[in-house]
Amino acid sequence: MREVWIRRRKDGVTELSPRLAPLPSIDRWLVIFTVVLASGGLFLTGAMPAPVLGAVLAAGLVGEVVLGTKALVLVLLRPPAEVHEVPRFGPRRRPGGS
Within 13 Å, how many C-alpha atoms sit on residue 11's CB side? Predict the structure, then answer.
């Protein structure tokens, strides 16, 4: 595994998780705004029906609510852990030798 975080929790569980993370909030809102702007343009030209535009708007907002809820649940339920960052290209150890 490359680029993982190793979390050792107080309850004895060791978690391995990728370093990939959701976009920062400002970037997510920029993407949502861009999609809504493009969808609004398609709606105004008649290429997109109103229910589809509504679905696009709802999907953007629901996605933001889901990410916020996930962050809140993780903060409340996951105990704090010591995080170790594993370097991408670390030196290899040779078994039995130096």
Answer: 6
Cβ-Cβ contacts under 8 Å for 86 (sequence gap 6 or more) = 1, 3, 4, 5, 6
Distance CA 49, CA 77 (A): 42
Residue type (1 letter), 19 = R
- Mean pLDDT to the nearest integer, 54-78: 90
Q: Residue 36 pLDDT more than 80?
A: yes
Q: Is the pLDDT of residue 60 over 50?
A: yes
Q: Is the dihedral of CA 27, 62, 5, 2 positive or negative?
A: negative
User: What backbone torsions phi and psi does residue 79 show, to the nearest 5 degrees?
Assistant: -70, 155
29 contact partners, CB below 8 Å, separation of at least 6: 64
- Tell me, rounded to whole angstroms, the distance of Cα 12 from its chain centroid: 25
pTM over 0.85: no
